[in-house]
Design a protein that fits this description.
Layout: H1 3-20, E1 23-29, E2 37-43, E3 47-58, H2 64-73, E4 77-83, H3 86-94, E5 98-101, E6 106-110, E7 113-117, H4 136-147, H5 156-163, H6 167-179, E8 183-185, E9 191-193, H7 196-215, E10 216-220, E11 235-238, H8 239-247, E12 255-259, H9 263-270, E13 280-284, H10 290-293, H11 300-310, H12 313-331
Parallel strand pairs: 3-4, 4-5, 12-13
Antiparallel strand pairs: 1-2, 2-3, 5-6, 6-7, 8-9, 10-13, 11-12
Length: 332
């Protein structure tokens, strides 16, 4: 449990108490659990309720499938976040997910209890704790760990060469992951990941916000072309086309490719026409995964992350299938 999560929860509950008189009678951490906290709320002489709580700094659209799953498994459930934007509050309500933000805005519906407070402005904002594990270099490194824990025990120099991250940064990244509670020493020579599902979720959020935008090389026209052309080993499919090839469940509307080529080289070999709103999105490839490279596909973990970012129901459904078939056994 990190200090930000505890601070967000305590701040939100304190603000809720100021606005509504609802009291908190118990807060318990849930170490290494599927949720962050168990809390007990009470409205004196009216009702009391124990809730399972997940805390977030910010709720994003692609978090919704995970929140729905957590709500099903931990009834009654509440998301507590520093900020939740109006469209996301509506999505949570429509899916029956209780929420509370640090301004004291709340939606709570369980049995005979119903509470809806909206319109309160944030008092202030939390300054996020900087952790080198979630910088661009840290995200590239952590991705390799999530793919294969053998990378975790590589000599730092070899790891730097494999990930393309500077040797000087590797030590800070490892310290950051350790401080965040994601590395478990097995003995003097061996480490393994712990809280892998939490690390996966945080990696996906940070990937969308921090790393992926920096990898973007441009948009181009593609629709109507064969996914097998031109079939160069430097390129792998991600997102929707990768999902179609992997599970045969999705007809692509947006095409995502990761490449080791430079922009001009790819344009020449694929005969691409640049277009700002084009349906082909090109990104720099940043990992090594021979098994999937041979299939010209991004690893399922990255395909899953790409699909969640779209907030498209077709893609969210495909992401769920990929998670269950390729990731669930590793992360649960």
């Amino acid at each position: 449990m990190n200090n930000n999560e505890t601070y967000i929860l305590e701040k939100a509950l304190a603000r809720l108490g100021e606005l509504t008189g609802i009291q908190v009678t118990d807060i318990r951490n849930v170490p290494n659990g599927s949720i962050d906290f168990k809390i007990k709320l009470e409205r004196k002489n009216h009702w009391h309720l124990e809730l399972s709580v997940e805390t977030r700094t910010e709720f994003k659209p692609y978090h919704l499938p995970r929140m729905m799953e957590m709500a099903r498994q931990n009834t009654p459930f509440m998301l507590v976040a520093e900020r939740i934007y109006p469209a996301q509050k509506q999505a949570l309500k429509e899916n029956g997910i209780n929420y509370l933000d640090t301004a004291g805005n709340i939606f709570l519906s369980h049995d005979q209890i119903y509470l809806f407070v909206e319109g309160n402005k944030p008092v202030d904002e939390i300054k996020p704790v900087t952790n080198r594990a979630f910088t661009k270099g840290g995200l590239k490194t952590a991705f390799h760990f999530l793919l294969d824990e053998q990378f975790l025990n590589m000599p730092y120099r070899t790891l730097a060469q494999t990930t393309g991250v500077s040797l000087g940064s590797i030590n800070y990244i490892m310290e950051g992951l350790d401080q965040a509670g994601f590395i478990l020493p097995v003995d003097n020579q061996t480490k393994k990941l712990q809280q892998k599902k939490l690390l996966l979720e945080r990696w996906i959020t940070a990937y969308h916000e921090t790393l992926k935008p920096s990898l973007f090389m441009g948009s181009f026209l593609f629709k109507g072309r064969d996914l097998s052309e031109p079939g160069e080993k430097e390129n792998v499919w991600g997102g929707e086309p990768a999902a179609e090839m992997l599970i045969n469940h999705l007809f692509p509307q947006i095409y995502t490719v990761y490449t080791l080529k430079d922009k001009l080289g790819l344009m020449k070999s694929w005969k691409l026409i640049p277009k700002n709103e084009g349906d082909l999105k090109v990104y720099q490839k940043f990992w090594t995964a021979p098994e999937w490279d041979a299939k010209q596909l991004a690893p399922p973990l990255l395909i899953y992350a790409d699909l969640l970012e779209t907030n498209d129901p077709r893609c969210i459904e495909a992401a769920g299938i990929i998670y269950n078939q390729f990731l669930k056994n590793e992360f649960e």
